[in-house]
Amino acid sequence: MFTFCAVGVETLKDMPSPRLVKTHLPVQLRPSSFWKNNCKIVYVAQNAKDVAVSYYYFYQMAKIHPDPGTWEEFLDKVMMGKVAFGSWYDHVKAWWEKRKDYRILYLFYEDMKEDPKREIQKLLKILDKDLPEETMDKILHHSSFDVMKEFYSSLKFTISFFSGISGDWKNHFTVAQYERFEKDYEEKMKGSTLQFRSEIKEIPVLLPTPLACT
User: pTM to 2 decimals?
Assistant: First the structure.
């Protein structure tokens, strides 16, 4: 006996508003109703090199994807856009341009790692919400990578394909791969105002101790 998941858009019809939708789809595959209704959209992007590394390990873990081959072979596929959801370059640039006409909050993973409180405040602003400091502290605690990793591990769900470290690509790229990737990156991002950081210095998040969570 097989159990099939309901189609995402059909499921939304039965959900009361406000509704939360999570997807990895590129701009061109979004339902037209998203634009007609001027939905609030939060887009989170990460630098290309760290994405390539995370994607490689995700392909190894998620057997629904074809075997990624060697790291060298998979890196070529990423550069050519021959991976799930297509070209990273097209994906991030298309959403970047779309933000000019719609209510899109474009966030960067590196910024979230560097100063999560600042980025959460941006999220609250687009949602027209205001939270007390105590609630903000709880959000910062429970959304940290270490806490989320512990939670998913308790569910026997592995997230070993993702280190949570910005700049982890340096542990995987050879000098030759880096130089080839950077040349290709400059060509494909030419003319775009979109800029990424490939490494950061994280700001420690100071929380009350002990943290009272209810």
Answer: 0.81
